[in-house]
Task: structure prediction
Amino acid sequence: MADSMNEMLRKDMQCEGLLECFHDLKEIDKEIFQLLHDHAEPLTVDEIAEQVDRERSTAYRGVQRLMQAGFIQKEQVNYDQGGYYHVYRPRDGEEIAQEMQRTLNDWYAQMGQLIGEFGEKYDEESRPAAAAEN
Result:
């Protein structure tokens, strides 16, 4: 289960913690993202698996989670004789940051509305008179 907001605020979070906080990504996903960011050239799943010292299937699942979250992109490389393979690279950090900011703004607006509804529903003046007397 996700940490409460108070627990999240008390954590000593690094910027990479946003991957977990916004998209519930795992430690291996953060490791893969960092790896892709540190390499000038895009990498295949096999290269990623080798670099993070994990099984190919584990690396592939991490890559899929990162793609689904919008942190990396897949590119197709064609062989001259036919056929192809895929490589992965991180998306632009500023674009990702802007998307996270929009998500945060949407969340903030929604939480503000819910807090307002909570205040209205549980306001002392809105309680029935009999309950207030007890």
Summary: Strands lie at 72-78, 84-90. The mean pLDDT is 85. The radius of gyration is 22 Å. The first helix runs from residue 5 to 10.
